[in-house]
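retry 2 of 3: previous attempt timed out while embedding magnesium ion. Reduced batch size to 1 and resubmitted. Inputs unchanged:
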Amino acid sequence: MNAPLLDIHDLRHTFPKADGGDLLVLDGIELQIAQGQIVGLLGRTGSGKSTLLRLIAGLAQPSDGTVTYLGQPVLGPAPGIAMVFQGFALFPWLTVLENVQLGLEALGLPDPEIRKRALAAIDLIGLDGYESAYPRELSGGMRQRVGFARALVVHPNILLMDEPFSALDVLTAETLRTDFLELWGDGKLPIKGVILVTHNIEEAVLMCDRILLFSNNPGRIIREIGVDLRHPRNRLDPQFRDLVEKIYVAMTARGTAAQTGSEKQITINTVLPRVSANLFSGLAETLAPAPYNGKADLPVLADELHMEGDELFPVAEALQMFHFAEVEGGDIRLTDAGKQFAELGTDDRKKLFQRQLLQYIPLAAHIRRVLQERTNHLAPKSRFLDELEDHMSTEDAEHTLRAVTAWGRYAEAFAYDDDSGAFSLENPS
Ligand code: ATP
Ligand code: MG
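retry 2 succeeded.
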């Protein structure tokens, strides 16, 4: 029997933390990919999807476990694996043709062959006539076509795509997805398998044969969902909608690590979603009155608010952390406190927000306690940042502190001065 295209076994990956410890980013990853599959990786921000792609491409080595490509261990950049990036990564001073040819230079082919293959890739991806244009002369969609051509020109076996459509406007993204699927379906692409990283649930259902759901902190594969629908797929097809719903349900299921709601113990060191008090109020105010009357199906709500699932999840998660809502089975339901919050006027709303903040977000209560205990009621940001960095990445620590700062300010639980970088207490009692 043929070796699978890609075989990942018991992969684990850590990054060094500021305190000298390790941050576990990926854990227990098992993944086999057979020829002819498009596999989607779907997960929240920071779940390690891009890291996994880099490990597959051989751009870094996993801390533990193995990546095997066509029976051979991947120990460095693998020639048969190419990548398409979200930000296109084109060289502005090179033409379309030169940018695409760049992909081939490492292969040591004769010049006429390089030119021939580059032109063929450009033609295939629909850029015929733009060979001598510079990236700045192209629209975002055309630039990403160059990104695809540059990856395809090496005739890779595996194409890795890291949110390739997310920087494009809605219509351009859809055209590019459809064009890609058509070429793939017609067997015109010189590739045998695709891994697509995305935040976008509908995109995953539109394009993939298998969808792997990732949890956060650390990134683990918590669920695999197969998509049996025939191409071209129709987003309005009830079976399509059912799959989207199924993924929402899986991503909001209790007891799975995909969510960090009230079910999962929130500690001083929990990474907090950066959701402004405005978004909080906005979602609660949308949910409270008819037609929702406090309860909504997340995919329906995302649709109506023109938000991707991934934009809506953090807001839903934040409401849940404050015990303003419960999220389960793909639904969000306001609690009594949440309904109250939606209906109160500004001052009372702030008071309720403060109560929930200090009761349910331990980091906020901790900051307030430290400020109360100090005679000058002041503490530098670094005081808390250092603590957080012992438990999470520098990036997450910054985000978490910003989130709690914004909430603390809105709630008037504590103040923060950007110039001096200090927290303070306005009303210490
Ligand atoms: P997103 O959806 O936002 O693109 P992701 O799932 O691709 O997120 P990664 O970029 O793989 O996530 O990051 C996973 C975690 O690893 C994050 O907590 C991130 O801060 C951390 N991380 C990534 N690269 C490094 C690095 N070079 N050094 C330290 N930490 C890193
Ligand atoms: Mg990423």
